[in-house]
Amino acid sequence: MDFSKEVREKSSLAHIRQASPLVHCITNYVVSNVTANGLLAIGASPVMADELEEVQEMVSIAGGLLLNIGTLNARTTDSMLAAGKQANRLGIPVVLDPVGVGATSYRQRFVQRLLSEINFDLLRCNRGELAAIAGVAWQSRGVDSGEGSQDIKEIAKQVAKQYRCLVAVTGDWDYVTDGEREAMITGGDIRMTAVTGMGCLLSAICAAALSLPGDRFKHLQGVLQDYKLAAEIAGAQPKIGSFQVEIMNALEQLSAGERL
Amino acid sequence: MDFSKEVREKSSLAHIRQASPLVHCITNYVVSNVTANGLLAIGASPVMADELEEVQEMVSIAGGLLLNIGTLNARTTDSMLAAGKQANRLGIPVVLDPVGVGATSYRQRFVQRLLSEINFDLLRCNRGELAAIAGVAWQSRGVDSGEGSQDIKEIAKQVAKQYRCLVAVTGDWDYVTDGEREAMITGGDIRMTAVTGMGCLLSAICAAALSLPGDRFKHLQGVLQDYKLAAEIAGAQPKIGSFQVEIMNALEQLSAGERL
Amino acid sequence: MDFSKEVREKSSLAHIRQASPLVHCITNYVVSNVTANGLLAIGASPVMADELEEVQEMVSIAGGLLLNIGTLNARTTDSMLAAGKQANRLGIPVVLDPVGVGATSYRQRFVQRLLSEINFDLLRCNRGELAAIAGVAWQSRGVDSGEGSQDIKEIAKQVAKQYRCLVAVTGDWDYVTDGEREAMITGGDIRMTAVTGMGCLLSAICAAALSLPGDRFKHLQGVLQDYKLAAEIAGAQPKIGSFQVEIMNALEQLSAGERL
């Protein structure tokens, strides 16, 4: 079976449903419910566990690990470090979502520590977070976030090379790179930014995608495309509360069927 | 008034609405919102409080206590033990939901400690969790989880006898026993497993049911039947996000009216 | 531009959308998701952060701070005190939501400490919580909570004077006072009490309202009116799960357009 051919024929979310990976999420309490439900909607299995005494054992049975610093605290920092290192030892893919890393020096310091002690497979962030991470390494620089901004792309490539990981910067357009290969994904719906946790859920879905066999870059690109498409399908619903419900419906739909 | 007659005429959820018990939940942060909303949907009153300094006082005003280990941590283990012991002293019913107990030794050890230090009125779990709990006591054994599996039933009866509590094992079919009496409940909708917290919410509703006067076994059996029925009503909705909304609608509907 | 004239022409929620304030919430994990989504629905920006090491820095970039004790614990008490004091130093408005303060002595003691160490701009609570707070200061007294109860109004005025803050007591009718000025708001939908976090979200929206330039009393009165109106709009939906969705839809609608 030619897997790369399958990727073209089936949606990436459908591949996740077929594999049904267990995704261990150490994430913030604001989005934990929508993250779990979003993973379930595409046929993946979420497990949330953040106690230091158990995270190493929990991650050992997972297909992927997500570290999300949205409500970082003294208790979960140690758990994230322990889980990430164990995932590295076992070859389990690890995704970092550096929520609001630019907002406080506490987050900046901890993200730098994570990046220095853990080998991440993917950094999934928005443009401001990318700039904050890059700024720490290369001093601050102006960031033009206009469509297809060359600055953003260059910074993403540099960060990908520096940390030897994939970088997915998402927003009104997405960009994914491993430092050499690159892809732009457009589309979606602006209201995704008006629903809490949509970026966080995407990071969790990326962790599921990285657990699949085959070309990781292509899986990520496919997942980002599917997520944009889900937003567009949900976008038929003009009201924000109903839009939230429709996102779950659309994710399920895309994971169940063929790529449109 | 013949209460057992009422049980037959009204749904168990309607009895909960009539009594409106306060249910103290020490539960995981992933499902706390849906648990609170589900209890409110059937007319019960939820209170979530997990700080050691206040749980004994909080449980004292409650009609039932739920201990759920979904996101167990060093801070909440002590709170669970203190709340459970206080509930025992005051004769307030206590329900254990041993989420993912088989996944880590940390959870296994803590569940064993809970079972040895607290008298639970009900263990509400799925088949894997039941096997993990039983396995600790009787070494591991093969578990056939096919429909109406004799193994599951026997293990549930043994656990019920060992811990002198009711045991409700739920899944595509449910089984409830006190070690002697037993009941099977079928029906429901497979998609309940694709929504996070549906088992956790059921455990909270069971805590509400145990606070009612009358035959506890019959109340539990009635609640499990109503929950299956709610899933079937919601099941008219083919999409998972909308299905989540419809579960709340169906729980409210069943608690408001007569048994169908 | 005459701002007070604008207040009459545009809804208070529309003013919030226009200003798009960042609201720092240290709130309970049960309602954090609905609080974030509710703030986003009216165009405000939520940030949840409760770690002592970062709350002072985080609140410095916020337009308003909410302290909500719903799942108070030893870790967050210090964070609340530090964030509140920093907000006071910087002139950032602070709202207290004393969830269930009457339920345990732990909550009562901590709320008294908050009130003695932090200058709150607003206390947003229900009648029982108001009585508990007042009871500590003036010993317990009977509280008549009938419509337009003089007792409630007098207690609210006394508390407003004692703590030099606005007080908004909400329920089937709302009352807001600064100790001298006062306003009653009626309307709404009784089912707001059957959805978890509706009072908590209102407190967060009030924090957003207090960040606006102009007359704070009028902003609060306007927000309470808009919230009642949102409940009435959602009230067209007879089922509780769907009602939850419609509240978000209605909040977005009111923030987008003219006052009806």
Describe this structure in words.
The structure is a homotrimer of 260-residue chains. The longest helix of chain A is centred in the C-terminal third of the chain and has 19 residues, at 216-234. Chain A has a single domain (3-256), classed as Ribokinase (UDP-N-acetylmuramoyl-L-alanine:D-glutamate ligase, 3-Layer(aba) Sandwich), CATH 3.40.1190. The first copy, chain A, has an eight-stranded mixed beta sheet, with helices on both faces. The radius of gyration of chain A is 17 Å and the shape is globular. Chain A has helices at 3-9, 12-19, 32-41, 52-60, 74-90, 105-117, 127-138, 150-162, 198-210, 216-234, 240-256; strands at 22-26, 45-48, 64-68, 94-97, 122-125, 166-169, 174-177, 182-185. Mean pLDDT of chain A is 92; it is low at 1-8 and 138-144. By secondary structure, the first copy, chain A, is α/β, with parallel strands linked by helices. In chain A, strand 1 (22-26), helix 3 and strand 2 (45-48) form a beta-alpha-beta unit. In chain A, helix 3 packs across helix 9 (198-210), helix 3 packs parallel to helix 11 and helix 9 packs antiparallel against helix 10 (216-234). The A-C interface holds A 28-31, 33-34, 70-75, 100, 103-107, 194-197, 239-242, 244-245 and C 29, 32-33, 36-37, 40-41, 46-54, 57-58, 61, 75, 244-249, 252-253.
> Could you describe the largest sheet of chain A, including whether it forms a barrel?
8 strands, mixed
CA radius of gyration of chain A: 17 Å
The portion of residues forming beta strands of chain A comes to: 5-15%
By secondary-structure content and strand pairing, the structural class of chain A works out as: alpha/beta
Mean residue pLDDT of chain A:
92
Largest interface: A-B, 28 and 28 residues
- Give the N-to-C terminal Cα separation of chain A: 22 Å
CATH architecture descriptor of chain A: 3-Layer(aba) Sandwich
CATH topology of chain A: UDP-N-acetylmuramoyl-L-alanine:D-glutamate ligase
Instruction: Report the count of strand segments of chain A.
Output: 8
